[in-house]
Amino acid sequence: LPSLSLPSSMHLIQVDSVQRWMEDLKLMTDCECMCILQSKPISIEKDEQNELILSSQYSTCDNLQLLLKRAWIISTELTRIAQKLERNRWQRVHSMTVRVNCHVRSMINEYNTFTRNSSEEMHQFEKLLVDKCSEFTAFTERCIQTEDEQILKTMKSCINETLTTVAQYFGQLIELILTHEAQNLLRQIELSDSIYITESAISSLFRLTQEGAHLCRIIAKEGGVVALFKICRQDCFRCLFPQTLRTLASICCVEEGMHQLEKVDGILCLTDILTDNSHSEATHAEAAAVIAQITSPHLTFTQHLSSFLENMEEILTALVKLCQEASSGEVFLLASAALANITFFDTMACEILLQLNAMKILLAACSDKHIVDTPYSRDQVATILANMSVLDQCASEIIQGNGVQLLMEMLFERSPSGNSAEVAACERVQQKSAVTLARLSRDPEVADAAIKLSCIPRLIKLCRSPTERNNSDSVLVACLVALRRLAVMSPDGLEDLDFQQLVKPRLVDSFLLCTNMEESFV
């Protein structure tokens, strides 16, 4: 159903299938009740306590979550109707259409019980959608009452058009509802002097951002970034800074959020927070998280980087200090992730980090297993080391901080849980440590230290054994390059077969040889 563009806004957290069924069962059974009652509420008075509406017992944010779940069900049903229609399953099409009709009416009734000031435009879309759903049901009912193939063929075209229109009206109504609710929350944030009300509104806003990029775009377009930075500039709301910054980090995953950040001098505000020692570590950590988000190398929009470069030295100084003084692994991860992203900008960032003794601080932190406690943290450190290793001065820092030993340990990085995200992080750690070794081995002292620590046998093992590198091609390439660099310094450290297969041929030939190796070859 090409016109139904809802998956991004209907994003739901992955949960166990039985748990999802239990949650959806309430909605489904209510829907069947509504079928019996012809979608008419039992009570006429809106304030009657016995009104059978799901949302009566929930807060506004819970109601929105419920609305999103109901919308997700409708979206799924519409897609299934299109599939059944394609196969001319008329009885199924009709029963599913009746169900969608009831779901739509239930959703509108539920929403209207907890919203107070919905717009005339929204009421118009509600009426359009309900009318079109009724028309849709009438069409499908006529189809199950005839067996004339010619009539059914003509009706199928009409039903397809009606289905497309229902999907369009439904998508537009959901967009209006989400925009309306985002506006209400932002109005509370902007107008309230109460910490309690502001905290509740920010919390609800954050939960909405977790529903996907589409909602983040809506919030950004409605001025969410502006309102949140306004909070971050008021000392009376200091206790709310961490959750405000966390919400900002979520919104800034989309381009609209980044544009708003640039307009309100958000980077200057973040710099002020990071460099203000009177703020809590939690506030500094969340500010670092925003920096990490807006400097992500994966972002395709970089208009904000010019203002970032103006404040880069102050930001780097604050982030290095946060890494050094981090009281937990989470704080270190956020600060080091921001540093890692910044090192992708240009060598100037790496030069500043070198002057700030960042290499020494990071290497020391890696020896504390309570601080650098996950492959994700080691991935950030490995990234920083790899990007800084382009500088000639980096070699002496590595030697002094026992960094070659750390790089050797990183070549053995393995995931204890087998979790796919963790396995991917371990691959990145192996790859980046090999890249760092390759770059630093131009220095004879580093190469000598690596050879003494038996880096060559480990690199050979990673090249020859696919399971050691989790079948990662990027790890293989990095290890082949590092091995060739070290082989120049110590040709006697390789057996003849290893030299003939892994060092002497062209890199691409060695790569193809290793990727085609069976495990038993090792």
UniProtKB/TrEMBL annotation:
UniProt-listed GO biological process terms: apical protein localization; asymmetric cell division; establishment of mitotic spindle orientation; regulation of asymmetric cell division
Stored Gene3D superfamilies: Inscuteable LGN-binding domain, Leucine-rich Repeat Variant
Domain Protein inscuteable homologue C-terminal: from-to ranges: 70-522
Signal peptide range: none
SMART domains, sorted: ARM
A Pfam family matched in the record: INSC_LBD
Cross-referenced InterPro entries: ARM-like, ARM-type_fold, Armadillo, Insc_C, INSC_LBD, INSC_LBD_sf, Inscuteable
Domain (Protein inscuteable homologue LGN-binding): residue spans on this chain: 13-57
SUPFAM superfamilies in the record: ARM repeat
Molecular function as annotated in GO: cytoskeletal anchor activity
Single GO cellular component term: apical cortex
The protein's name in its UniProt record: Protein inscuteable
Species of origin: Apaloderma vittatum (Bar-tailed trogon)
